[in-house]
Every structure is written in C-alpha cells, then in structure tokens.
Amino acid sequence: MDLLAELTARRALCIIRAPAIPDPAGLAATLVDAGLPIVEFALTTPDAPRLIERASTVEGLILGAGTVLTDQDARDAISAGATFLLTPGLRPSVAEEARRQNVPLILGAMTPTEVATAMDLGAAAVKVFPAARLGPAYFGDLHGPYPDIPLVATGGITTANAADFLAGGALAVTAGSGVVGPALAAESRLAEIAERAKEFVAAVAATA
Q1: Which partner from 12, 42, 54, 124 sits 20 to 30 angstroms from 28, CA to CA?
Q2: What are the pLDDT tens digits along the chain (208 aa)?
Q3: How many domains does the chain have?
C-alpha cells in the first residue's frame, strides 16, 4: 500500500476516537461506502488493537492506528492489522519501529523545525496539528522552505473549512469528531455517520 499515493488521490482521512466502539467493522464499512476509506483508530480508544483487528476484515479499508506514542504501541497496532501509523508529535522510537516493519508513518509536527525533523525520521507525510488554530495560510508558509513536503491538516477540520486547507497547501485533511462523533460511534449511529462522511467527502471533492 502506497500511503502517499492514496492520500494524494483521496485528499482525506478519518480519525476515530470514542469511549467505546461496539461495531468497528460496521463503522469502518460505513466510512468506506461513504468514500472515506483511509481510517485510523486512535489508540486512546479503549481496547484499540482489538478494534483494529475486528475492522481489518472490511474490504476496501485502508486501516491505520493513530496516537501511537511508543514502539510497543506500534508493534501492537501492526500486529492487529494496522497498515499505517500516525503520531501526535515527533516519536523517534515509533519511527524506528515503523521503518523496521516497513509500515508507512505520518509523524505529527507544528513548527518548521519539527516538520523537517519528521521527514528526517522517515515520515511519509507530516501531520500538522492543531491546524484550525494555525489557519490555512500556515500551510502555504510551510511550503515556502519545504515545497515538496506532504502536509496533512489535522485538528478542527470541518466540511466548512476543509477546502480552505487544501487550497492553502495541505495534501490532505483529517475528518475527526465532526464526522465520527464519540457519541455517534459509541451508539453505532451509522446512518448519521454516513451522512456526515458524505458531506465531508463532497467538501473535499469541491477543491478538485
């Protein structure tokens, strides 16, 4: 799986973070059907590796693990079926484990120095967080010194502002609680999630 190629084609991914997810496979399938197949399960969700394992059978799903903080987190997520990893910040031990297992990694960063360090550590792309606080223009600013670094806008991205971040220079944007709200996931309100996901995908497609 070429994660960078998938991000370039889709321009969106979805993070799932909830107090409980009773039907991870159903939730993942809902997102795939809605046109949002790149999905990460945050390891802050209880029993996340088991959820990843249960979701891994969904056809068409590009499955990742987010909020990966340690090399053990990375090993657990990969063993469960994660095909890519994301971190909230620079995590050299996670980068080393991802490299050892040949699994693509998106490292989190905010400052220009952190963005460069993430690439030095082997990141396939850099997750810039918190994007909404930094604003769309910040991505254009980063592309001044780093024109070829793929940036993923994360944090506060909605259907209303996703296009602005893509136009500003982000390769892709991350749908979060605005699409898969914690309560919606915990209560398996899949129809509502599907509608929100389709709206987010449409917002992203409008920039094509």
Answers
A1: 124
A2: 899 999 999 999 999 999 999 999 999 999 999 999 999 999 999 999 999 999 999 999 999 999 999 999 999 999 999 999 999 999 999 999 999 999 999 999 999 999 999 999 999 999 999 999 999 999 999 999 999 999 999 999 999 999 999 999 999 999 999 999 999 999 999 999 999 999 999 999 987 6
A3: 1
Q: What is the CATH number of the domain that holds 163?
A: 3.20.20.70
C-alpha 102/C-alpha 110 separation (Å) is 25
Count of alpha carbons within 13 angstroms of residue 156, beta-carbon side: 11
Structural domain boundaries, residue 131: 3-205
Q: Is the peptide bond before 130 cis (omega within 30 degrees of 0)?
A: yes
Token digits of residue 8: 């370039």
Q: Is the pTM of this model over 0.85?
A: yes
| Distance, CA of 54 to chain centre | 19
Q: Which of 8, 7, 1, 11 is nearest to 104 (CA)?
A: 1
- In angstroms, the CA 58 to CA 81 distance is 11
